[in-house]
Design a protein that fits this description.
Number of strands: 11
Number of helices: 11
Strand content: 5-15%
Structural class: alpha/beta
CATH class: Alpha Beta
Helix content: 40-55%
Mean pLDDT: 82
Distance between the termini: 49 Å
Low-confidence stretches: 1-10, 12-18, 23-54, 311-326
CATH topology: TIM Barrel
Strand order of the largest sheet: 1-2-3-4-7-8-9-11
Length: 408
């Protein structure tokens, strides 16, 4: 018999409700942490990953849903947050690539948005999280991001993803079934072009020509591979010597620790010996000066955000054989799933509280092998509260650096 979760006995759910709970939320009771833990309540950390790791970096991540169709205001928030993060010494700003759905709607063109950020900042890293490479010709990717790398004086890095939503592939329908293989093939072409070499292409009149892209970047392309819960994607990243971008959506800290071990093993088996590979973890975040202010603030906007994500999942499920028929999920089912997801985020899958109360979660992530936090801050809070969170993330970065110095 299943143990009750947040007062709900899974054995009492309909098969559709249970399947959706287990697939969408991946609830794990082991290793759960409270929303505002104290140091005395700190859970045991997973075993540390062998080898030296750099001090943890703290970055911003943006992935808002466009529920009110006010993109200008959302872009203004992103730009102002990026300016503040640049002043505070945060590590990087991540923006995603999303298409054709309200969830992530402000972000169809990450290079364009990051170009605006580049013009208003001086030092902060500019990251795409993620470019869905099977949707694009690598010639155009190399050109577009080469321009941005030049404008920003070498601050650009990319995380690449294979894509998951079939409807996105109206941009390249033939790539969908082979999207993982297509990503690997196009990554090799992108690397070739980025270092200034040519790519053979078919040209008019039956000719084949060697094509090079410009401008030529002055440094190698820092590249991540986006992976959530699929262990094989982590192994692929290790074999290709890529950094990893992951998230807490479908896994726990303990799960991440296990996958980091797989990743490091794959790197070693492929002969990669450097110790500078990064594991970036995206997690929903709201820090405030007073920990007790956080849950009342975030409960309603985070619930709306998760509802938008559930809509996207149902759209995905309608095109896949995942054992769930969205039309059979009732409003009561949705309410249960949303409350379940909200509690999971607040308790074990995000940073919610003050700098001090979130340090135990930070320590667990570092022990699991995470080297960078991608703090998703734009899930519907008022602008001033988002700015407060960014300022507190500046404090968190300072604390992390101070503790790293003390440990040396």
């Amino acid at each position: 018999m299943s143990a009750p979760i947040d007062g709900v006995d899974l054995d009492q759910l309909t098969p559709q409700r249970r399947e959706l709970v287990e697939r969408l939320l991946r609830q794990r009771q082991a290793g759960a942490t409270p929303a505002t833990p104290t140091r005395s309540a700190e859970p045991a950390a997973p075993a540390a990953v062998p080898g030296r790791r750099p001090a943890l970096a703290v970055s911003l991540f943006f992935f808002s849903a466009d529920l009110d169709d006010a993109p200008a205001d959302k872009y203004d928030l992103v730009l102002r947050c990026a300016e503040l993060a640049d002043e505070l010494g945060l590590h990087a700003v991540w923006v995603p690539e999303r298409h054709f759905d309200p969830f992530g709607a402000p972000y169809p063109a990450p290079a364009v948005l990051l170009a605006a950020i580049a013009a208003r900042t001086r030092r902060i890293g500019l990251r795409a999280g993620s470019v869905v490479l099977p949707l694009h010709d690598p010639l155009l990717v190399a050109e577009e991001w080469g321009v941005l790398d030049a404008i920003s004086r070498g601050r650009v890095a990319l995380s690449l993803a294979s894509g998951w939503h079939a409807d996105d592939f109206v941009l390249d329908p033939d790539s969908y079934e082979r999207r993982k293989e297509v990503l690997t093939e196009r990554l090799e072409v992108l690397r070739t072009l980025w270092r200034g070499d040519g790519s053979l292409r078919a040209a008019p009149q039956g000719r084949t020509i060697e094509t090079r892209t410009y401008p030529r970047p002055a440094r190698p392309l820092e590249t991540w591979l986006t992976s959530s819960s699929n262990p094989q994607t982590w192994r692929t990243a290790g074999a290709l010597d890529l950094h990893v971008l992951t998230a807490m959506l479908e896994q726990t800290v303990d799960d991440i620790a296990e996958k980091v071990t797989l990743y490091q093993k794959a790197r070693a088996e492929a002969g990669h010996v450097s110790d500078d590979r990064q594991v970036t973890c995206m997690l929903h975040t709201h820090l405030a000066e007073r920990a007790e202010d956080v849950v009342p603030r975030v409960r309603e906007p985070l619930g709306r955000y998760l509802s938008a994500h559930l809509n996207l999942f149902e759209k995905f499920a309608s095109t896949q054989d995942v054992g769930v028929r969205p039309e059979e999920v009732t409003e009561a089912d949705r309410a249960l799933l949303l409350e379940h997801g909200l509690q999971r985020y607040l308790r074990q899958s995000g940073l919610f509280g003050s700098v001090e109360t979130c340090l135990p979660m930070v320590d667990r992530l570092v022990a699991a092998g995470v080297t960078e936090l991608g703090c998703l801050v734009d899930f519907g809070l008022p602008d001033e509260q988002v700015f407060e969170c960014v300022r507190q993330l500046g404090r968190l970065q300072e604390q992390v650096r101070d503790r790293a110095e003390e440990a040396r």
